[in-house]
NAD(P)H-dependent oxidoreductase
Amino acid sequence: MHTLLVAANPDPSSLTHHVREKLEAALHPVSVEAADLARERFDPAFTLADRRAYQGSGTYPADIVREHRRLERATDLVLIFPVYWWSMPALLKGWIDRVFVNGWAFEHSPASGLRPKLQALTTHLLPIAGGDSGAYERHGYEEALRTQIEHGIVDYCGSRRGATAFVYESEQPSSEATARSVDRAVRIISGAIHARSRALL
């Protein structure tokens, strides 16, 4: 078992990074690697080189090869991110656009159709939302976000769906309430990963 935690927030003192640190501690003794996309200065812009690699007429850029190797070591992936406009930040979306590409995460051609390739990976989601759970339920925001990522990305690439745990009301004035929400989300994700680890023993 090896878990890759991917965090996308430019502020190292943000709740996003606090949650990542708490989750990393809760996963002990499972092997964990943390990827801070902002600190690592990952470039989310999809370039002509990315496009040519996607089409099979070029090689993957060196920074993408490094991400592929990092993901190939992982049995579990956890995406930890603040919700921006009911979706993920551009930094994380660009990471997925550039890394989860044709030929590596899946293969698609007019002749053979779709062949997912990430069956060995389980993907978990830990979105950090400013709104409350009631608003997300009333307006269908949680369902829309889960459909976009779980079905549109995770299922498409053949990865197993892991746990999804929202941290709601992340900007409320009561630090105690925020702490309870964080503890709950960390407990759900770490519990799912520990359960998988025990099942493999």
About this structure: The chain has a mean pLDDT of 94. Residues 64 and 144 are 28 Å apart (CA to CA). The chain is about 45% helix and 20% strand.
